[in-house]
Each structure stands twice: as structure tokens, then as C-alpha cells.
Amino acid sequence: MSDGVGHGGETRDPGSIESGGETHDPYAARSDAELAALPCAFRDDLFAGQVALVTGGAGGIGRAICILLGRLGATIVTCGRDQAKLDRLAGSLDALGIACQTRQMTIRDPEQVGELFAAAYDRQDRIDVVVNNAGGQFALPAVELSPGGWSAVVETNLYGTWYVMQAAAREWIARTQGGSIVNIGTITGRGSVGIPHTAAARAGAQGLAASLSVEWAPHRIRINTVAVGVVRSPGLRHYPPEARPSFDHNPQRRLGDVHDVAQAVAFLGSAEASGFITGEVLHVAGGGQVWGEYWALGKPDWFRVDD
């Protein structure tokens, strides 16, 4: 797979990736205008009158989620660590006629998470959907991971996810409101060489979501996970060139799109569309969960098998 030759012996340009029959730069991001104009499977008012809280909304996937839920009528509450990025997102959403509230913070701090929910309820008086999108990782051989590097990823992808879910549940239970939580995760259950911290955190978050979906079901709280494969994004530049052959290593032989993820979130977030679904993991990965492999640092010679 590392030489750019796909199945059937066809030679593919290693500088491009096929996506839905079109050739795309895997590192390119869709513009907000593009995201706002993409066809959508849902009616325009699916989230009318509702409030969606999306963590990490200024990033690639988060941005697509904010724009789509906003297009469908939701008021957006989002947070992130970079105020300049949040300001740009708010300006873009405003230009699209989407109401937005932002807050600079980190989900790794439970007190800041509590303050986020308090500010959202103070201004919006309700939250209907919570999307745990904020996360991060980096590729490194496991023996080189420092305690700080391990903690940063696990605290964001697992602890932060927990803090947000707990804060949402506390508010909803106290208000007898109920709501929907959608966590953004990754494919688990297989080796994730080069990103063991993420593998541990995401698997933990899926197990946590399954447990909480049972415990909080009497309070009309649904919790589901979108397990994302490799999607076209500038974030892929954080991986070395050796990882690139893995980008489209799935049955569909292409990268996903952030809009694919956003539509999955809209489906699971809507009580009308998925009200009888909880504790579920929906893979948006081109089938990568059933076939394929991902080598964040490139495939070692040990695992190369001749045809």
C-alpha cells in the first residue's frame, strides 16, 4: 500500500486521494461557504428552537457540525482554546444567519466545563443537544511518549468527554428536561500503532458512553458515538508522510468528508430522527472498521506482506 498501487493493479497518484469519484487534496478544508451549500438529508427546521452545544467548534469537523446544525435551525454554543478561531467561526455563522455563543476554555478543566454550561443556560435558557467533538492527538512511537504527552491526550479525549457528559446530565436531570449527547470518537477494537494514547482514551470513552446510556436512560438522556475514520482535513498534516498510504485504506478506498460526520451527528442528535437509538456506535469510516488498517507512523517492514 505504500507505493501508491491499489487493488486491481491500478496506479494511483500518491499526491491525491479519491473521494466520491473526485480527486481531492487530503489536506484541504472545505470553506464555510461550501459547507453551507452542500446538499443535506434533513429538512431545514429539524432543530428549530433548539440549542446545540458543540465543543471544539472552530476545528474542521466541529466547524462542519456547527454549520449544519445551524442550517437546520439550532442556536450554536461552542467553545475552544483559541479565541481568534472562535471569533472567525462566530463571524462566519453570523453571516449565514446562525445565532452563536462562544467561550474560550478547555474541557480538561471540570470547573470551566461547569461554567460553560452555566453561561449557556444563562443566555439561551436551554440546551437540547451536546456534541463532544473537542479532542486531539499526535503520532509518536509508544516508547517515546512522555507522561505529559500521554496525559494531555487522555485528559482531553477521555476526561474532557466525561466532564462534558456529566455536566450535561446534571443540568438535564435537575431540569427534568432530557437531551441527546453525541460523542465524536474513532474506530476501536484494533491496533492503533503510533497513537496508543488516543486508542486508550477513545476506547474508554466508548465504554463510558455505553454505561451512561443505561444509567441515564430513565432521565430521557440518549448517548451515542460517531466513530470517525480518516476525513479530508488540514489536521492530517500533523502526521508524517509515511502515514499517507493509510488515509484511504478502507473498503470504499477514499477519504471521508467533514460533512459526512456532521450529517451523522444531526441524525443521532435529533430526538425526532433517532429517538429510539441510544448506546450506539455509528461508524462513519468507509467500512474501515471491518477492513483496513491505519499506520500513523507508516507501516513497519515487519508487517509488509508480499503479494
Overview of this structure, please?
This protein is of the alpha/beta class and 307 residues long. The chain has a single domain (43-287), classed as Rossmann fold (3-Layer(aba) Sandwich). Helices cover 36% and strands 15% of the residues. It has helices spanning 32-37, 60-71, 83-95, 110-124, 147-174, 196-215, 258-269, 271-274; strands spanning 17-19, 22-24, 51-55, 75-80, 100-104, 129-132, 179-186, 221-228, 281-284. The strands form 2 sheets. It has a 7-stranded parallel beta sheet with strand order 5-4-3-6-7-8-9, sandwiched between helices. Strands 1-2 form a two-stranded antiparallel sheet. Helix 4 packs parallel to helix 5 (147-174) and helix 5 packs parallel to helix 6 (196-215). The longest helix is centred in the middle third of the chain and has 28 residues, at 147-174.
Break the fold down into its secondary structure elements and pairings:
Elements: E1 17-19, E2 22-24, H1 32-37, E3 51-55, H2 60-71, E4 75-80, H3 83-95, E5 100-104, H4 110-124, E6 129-132, H5 147-174, E7 179-186, H6 196-215, E8 221-228, H7 258-269, H8 271-274, E9 281-284
Compose a concise summary of this entry.
This protein has helices spanning 32-37, 60-71, 83-95, 110-124, 147-174, 196-215, 258-269, 271-274; strands at 17-19, 22-24, 51-55, 75-80, 100-104, 129-132, 179-186, 221-228, 281-284. With 307 residues, the chain is of the alpha/beta class.
SSE order, one letter for each helix or strand: EEHEHEHEHEHEHEHHE
Shape: globular
| Derived structural class | alpha/beta
How many discrete structural domains? 1
| Uncertain ranges | 1-16
Which whole number gives the mean pLDDT? Answer: 91
- Order of adjacent strands in the largest pleated sheet: 5-4-3-6-7-8-9
